[in-house]
Write a structure and sequence with these properties.
heterodimer; A: mainly alpha; MetI-like fold; about 70% helix; B: alpha/beta; D-Maltodextrin-Binding Protein, domain 2; six-stranded mixed beta sheet; 14 helices; globular
């Protein structure tokens, strides 16, 4: 174990050699490692992420390639995507994405700060709430808002609805609000991870030098720049790729968005994949915007602050007024992000009909009884649970590797390309991502050589992993960027092998962000619809497909009851994992990234 | 505690104490995954059935499809795998799989979709089960026998809330909907998303004399405040919430709502368009699969199959008019002869589907 040449794990880029300056001067061992690890990683990424995306995007210029049109080469679909309502949709999508990202970061940062660094009451509860926000598929909050604010909706019937409310909710404002509320957890996680690694010394140093609270923030915030940009980029890309809100709130408000154009091109009959692909090109192009800004802002700087000397941060004791204000702000966020969808979903699940009437005597538990009495729901629930557990576990490992590649390849061109690919994959809606898997993995020659992956659980899980990896890696980038290389070196100096040095030196530091990232993926996959819908093996529907079936077969209340049960189950898993971490992980692990108090 | 200490001070006892729970957790997780995996994924990978029969893959968007595939499998022993989804995503899959189809049979509403699949050469032709068709059933069988009707619904039904409107206040023609009385009060689905809505749009265009006359009508309807929603349930929701007063949706959804919700009623305007539910068989399917698919169709059209079809989704898709003689429609369905219905040529209108839907999305929805 003490040999310099470490055991080659194909997906594990090696550290820099011992006692060398932290410049990209490579030792022989590392060079050997990299010569294996890098190509292997790239081949995996190529097969899992790139092939489907490239196949899908190729259809825009060469429909004939996959039997989707007569031409081998054409630009007509691209020009169609850049004209008329499609162009309008693209512009709307971009500005909504920018506004959403700004709003989500604006909410996510104070929220993360309040929960990580102050003694705000009920922190545990609020943290669990974040997972709940993340769990809800975006159409659910949109539906909740519609049920509340529609003419004849809950608020109007309670006498609180007003014209202005409808104008705000059923318009661009409502779209940005719902998307931003959904984006907050991404920002929150990026910030929590980064704040955890920041320790207290920077704040202390600023305070010692006489800085007030505001001036201290001005010291701390720039150190968090990777997390801020990460959060902005990820929320932007998530918002750009969202179909749930685009096809509900935005659709009803006659506010065309690019994803809706894409969605209807695919769902139209016969499906217009070339046009969908052309719109896909534009969505991918839109991602260049946050990436370029991010690259500009972070160029040539290091954000490695997480070292062995890190001191856990203390919690700021809030004044009574601060506490009240903090609670009010946090409460408002949860009322909007969780209260509204909860009212929408739960009330609909308790109603006999299609959910239009409000009145206590209309309430019934019949839908829940129906769910529990039929065996149709239990197996999709268990199946999705299994899919989400596997996906989250694999993604945590792969995402860490990917995040390291992003951070440690520095300014190398391959890293920038990789970064772009990851974000581009986030920007592509799940539907087209999944369609790309059909094009790439349902080729006749694959069937001939016995590699028929399409239509199997294996491919579904691969697609889940590929679909969550980009988000996951980008959320982790903030933390991984903070880890100083010296931590592994320290372990090696004390005689540990590379693996043990990493396991005992770096893993403890990363354990909390990793657990969070695991939950992030779990929550994202458990109720994932677009990929599941297209790639699930016939006869084995995941829970989201089962719910969608009921919703689209006019069993609105039943579908809602299923949603409520599914969300509760997933929340139980979140509780078990968070509780398990608290009980089982060594105490030292929990200190890092946490705070006293 | 500084974390460097964790690294540099490894007393073996303490290390054991620290590592044990972590190891236990990892092992536990792996075991749990294994157990869960083995229970939820029986025979997930690989395709051969136990009896040597090839599984029949059914792509279907009918509310009774899971009941039917289960009944068929039980009756014949043929392993049947169901991909149950909305019409849109299913047809998208069929198109995406074009160069290597994975489905054995497709079962959705709308002859236009099948006609187009047939024109693209994706359907097996020349199979017609030996059954006693009703007049509407016979009319729905295409000349080249590329798909087989299994039931009839109508599009649109006019669904209204009798607490808000009385029967005498209802419109009597589509032209009435353009009057100020119905300003902002009419809702329908987006044909690009809701599969059964295109036949309604096509039927109305057919009735009004062609595509451009139809486009003009929908533009006028839009300026009179037409609401376009995505699917039947959203449109019904809007009706019950009072956002709209008339919902133009598929008869099965409307009648289902009527059965479930007091006050909801259904009417029909002249003319309403016949919307056959149908089954098509993959042209590239192996002989075995094709034989199984034909057996499936025959099973659906037996008395036993019809019983399953009528009970599988009692307040939804089961509310259809049967296409074979000797099977009565479910209670609650009006007599089909009392309704002024038209049949459109699925081949003519199927070929126009994409263009009309795109026009609708660009000009009426947005």
């Amino acid at each position: 174990m003490t040999a310099l040449a470490p055991p080659v794990a194909p997906a594990e880029p090696g550290p820099r050699p011992l006692l060398r300056p932290a410049r990209p001067g490579l030792g022989r061992a590392t060079a050997t490692l990299q010569s294996f690890a890098l190509p292997a990683t790239w081949i995996l990424i190529g097969l899992l992420l790139l092939a489907p995306v490239v196949c899908f995007l190729a259809i825009a210029i060469s429909p004939r390639l996959f039997d989707q049109g007569p031409q081998w080469f054409t630009l007509s679909d691209l020009s169609q995507a850049l004209s008329g309502p499609n162009l309008q949709g693209l512009l709307d999508t971009v500005w909504v994405g920018v506004a959403t990202a700004a709003l989500a970061v604006g909410i996510g940062f104070p929220l993360a700060y309040l929960l990580a660094r102050t003694d705000l009451p009920g922190r545990g509860l609020w943290t669990i709430g974040i997972w709940l926000v993340l769990l809800l598929p975006s159409w659910l909050p949109a539906l909740g808002w519609e049920r509340l604010a529609a003419p004849g909706g809950v608020l109007v019937q309670l006498g609180a609805g007003d014209r202005w409310l409808q104008d705000v909710v059923f318009g661009p404002g409502g779209v940005v609000l719902v998307l931003a509320l959904r984006g907050v957890p991404f920002a929150f996680l990026a910030f929590t991870a980064a704040l955890g690694g920041l320790g207290r010394e920077f704040e202390d140093a600023a305070r010692v030098h006489g800085a007030g609270r505001l001036a201290t923030l001005r010291v701390v915030v720039p150190i968090l720049a990777p997390a801020i940009w990460s959060a902005l980029a990820i929320v932007f890309a998530e918002s750009v790729s969202d179909v749930g809100v685009a096809s509900t709130l935005a659709f009803n408000a006659h506010f065309p968005m690019a994803t809706y154009g894409l969605f209807s091109a695919v769902n139209n009959y016969p499906s217009d994949f070339p046009l969908a692909s052309a719109i896909g090109w534009l969505l991918v192009a839109a991602v260049v915007l946050p990436l370029a800004l991010q690259a500009r802002a972070l160029r040539g700087r290091s954000y490695a602050v997480l070292s062995g000397r890190l001191r856990p941060a203390g919690r700021t004791a809030l004044s009574r007024r601060g506490r009240l204000l903090g609670l009010a702000g946090v409460g408002l966020f949860y009322a909007l992000a969780l209260g509204v969808p909860a009212v929408g979903t739960i009330s609909a699940s308790l109603l006999r009909d299609f959910g239009g009437t409000v009145g206590l005597k209309e309430l019934t538990l019949a839908n829940y009884r129906a769910v529990f009495s039929s065996s149709g729901l239990a197996s999709p629930l268990l199946r999705s649970l299994f899919f989400a557990l596997v996906t989250a576990t694999v993604t945590v490992v792969a995402g860490l590797v990917a995040a390291r590649m992003l951070v440690h390849s520095g300014a190398r061109r391959s890293a920038r390309l990789f970064d772009f690919l990851l974000l581009a994959a986030v920007a592509l809606p799940g539907t087209v991502f999944a369609a790309g898997y059909i094009f790439a993995y349902n080729l006749p020659f694959l069937t001939k050589i016995g590699l028929a992956l399409y239509g199997t659980t294996t491919l579904l899980i691969i697609a889940y992993i590929a679909g969550s990896l980009p988000t996951h890696a980008r959320v982790l980038v903030g933390t991984v960027a903070q880890v100083q290389e010296s931590m592994v070196h320290a372990g090696r100096i004390h005689g540990a092998g590379l693996l043990r040095a990493w396991l005992r030196g770096v893993l403890p530091v990363l354990s909390r962000p990793l657990v969070m990232a695991w939950l992030l993926t779990f929550c994202g996959i458990f109720l994932e619809l677009p990929i599941s819908q297209i790639l699930y093996p016939p006869g084995q529907p995941p829970v989201s497909v089962a719910i969608n079936d009921n919703l689209s077969n006019y069993h609105f209340g039943l579908g809602m009851a299923q949603s409520v049960i599914a969300v509760l189950l997933a929340l139980a898993v979140v509780g078990v994992v968070l509780g398990g971490y608290r009980l089982l992980a060594p105490r030292g692990w929990q200190r890092i990234g946490g705070a006293h108090g | 505690m500084p974390s460097s200490k964790v690294v540099s001070r490894p007393p073996s006892l303490r290390r054991r104490a620290r590592r044990l729970p972590f190891g236990v957790a990892v092992t536990g997780l792996a075991a749990a995954l294994g157990v869960l995996g083995s229970t939820v994924l029986p025979g997930a990978i690989g395709t051969a059935g136990a009896s040597g029969k090839v599984p029949l893959v059914v792509y279907a968007a009918e509310g009774y499809d899971s009941a039917m595939t289960a009944a068929f499998q039980k009756a014949t022993g043929i392993p049947t795998r169901l991909d149950d989804d909305s019409t849109g995503p299913l047809l998208a899959k069929v198109v995406a799989e074009k160069n290597n189809p994975q489905w054995g049979l497709l079962w959705v509403d709308g002859a236009t979709a099948f006609a187009l699949l047939d024109q693209q050469g994706l359907l097996y032709r020349g199979f017609e089960p030996n059954v006693g068709w009703t007049t509407l059933g016979k009319a729905a069988v295409p000349r080249d026998k590329s798909y087989i009707p299994t039931g009839i619904t109508l599009m649109p039904a006019i669904v209204y809330n009798s607490k808000v409107l009385s029967a005498s206040q209802l419109p009597t023609s589509y032209q009435d909907l353009l009057s100020p009385t119905w300003k902002g009060a009419v809702g329908m689905n987006d044909p690009a998303v809701s599969g059964p809505t295109y036949p309604f749009v096509a039927g109305l265009m057919n009735q009004l004399g062609g595509v451009s006359a139809g486009e003009k009508y929908f533009e006028q309807l839009k300026s009179n405040g037409l609401h376009v929603f995505q699917t039947n349930d959203v449109t019904l929701n809007a009706l019950e919430a009072g956002t709209i007063k008339l919902a133009l949706i598929q008869s099965s959804a409307g009648i289902g709502a009527m059965l479930k919700t007091p006050g909801i009623k259904v009417a029909f305007l002249p003319k309403t368009t016949v919307l056959p539910g149908a089954i098509g068989i993959d042209k590239g399917a192996s002989k075995t699969v094709r034989a199984e698919a034909e057996q499936f169709v025959k099973f659906v059209l037996t008395k036993e199959g019809q019983r399953v079809q009528q009970s599988g989704d009692p307040t939804g898709d089961s509310l259809y008019w049967p296409v074979i003689k000797g099977v009565a429609p479910k209670a609650g369905l009006p007599s089909i002869t009392s309704i002024d219905a038209q049949t459109i040529n699925p081949y003519t209108w199927g070929a126009r589907e994409n263009a009309v839907n795109q026009w609708f999305t660009n000009n009426i929805v947005q």
